[in-house]
Amino acid sequence: MGLNIYGSLIVLHLVSACVWVGLLVALSCSLLPQAVRERDGAAFYRIEALYSTVGMPALFSTIATGLVLGYLHLPDFGAWLDFSNPMGRLVGLKLILLAALLGLGVDLRFRLFPKVEKLGIGALRWHAALITVLSLLLVFVGASFRIGWLY
Ligand code: HEM
């Protein structure tokens, strides 16, 4: 079996997406609510370490492989937001969801993180929940390339 670039990109995209989405579900459904319940301020530093050592590399790899996969499906960048083209619709939806996710991520990292000691760890809950929902929608749109739901 020869090395296949498309197949390797899919595997990398899937593995990094699994790590990213798995981490977020664990954060929003378990680690964060537990820290809020127990008023465990130190949990923030453990969560931040997990986010930067595991979450960020996984997100970076998902985005990088996703962009290359998008290019392989649609080499014309002008069509990436063309919603009348089924492939452009899927790539465009991915890019819109990604922009919203990155916007929330920047707000979380640069506005909320420095204020967490004052506001309490509960201040992160809405951002974590929304980022998790956006990531699950990215999985749904991603699966749709193969299944054809949004064509
Ligand atoms: C957190 C962000 C993302 C997650 C969780 C995610 C998740 C997924 C998943 C689960 C699949 C299904 C793979 C398969 O059917 O084998 C997929 C496919 C795909 N994703 Fe993403 N994705 C993300 C970001 C992106 C970005 C930014 C792009 C760039 C536009 C992108 C482009 C694609 C493409 C083109 C496919 C179809 C691959 C194929 O079946 O040929 N993804 N994604």
From TrEMBL:
Pfam families named in the record: CopD (PF05425)
Keyword Transmembrane helix: yes
Membrane in keyword set: yes
Transmembrane segments: 6-28, 49-72, 92-112, 124-149
Any one Gene Ontology cellular component term annotated for this protein: membrane
Alphabetic keyword roster: Membrane, Transmembrane, Transmembrane helix
Every Copper resistance protein D domain range: 47-144
InterPro entries named among the record's database cross-references: Cu-R_CopD_dom
Top-level taxon in the UniProt lineage: Bacteria
UniProt-recorded name of the protein: CopD family protein
Biological source species: Pelagicoccus enzymogenes
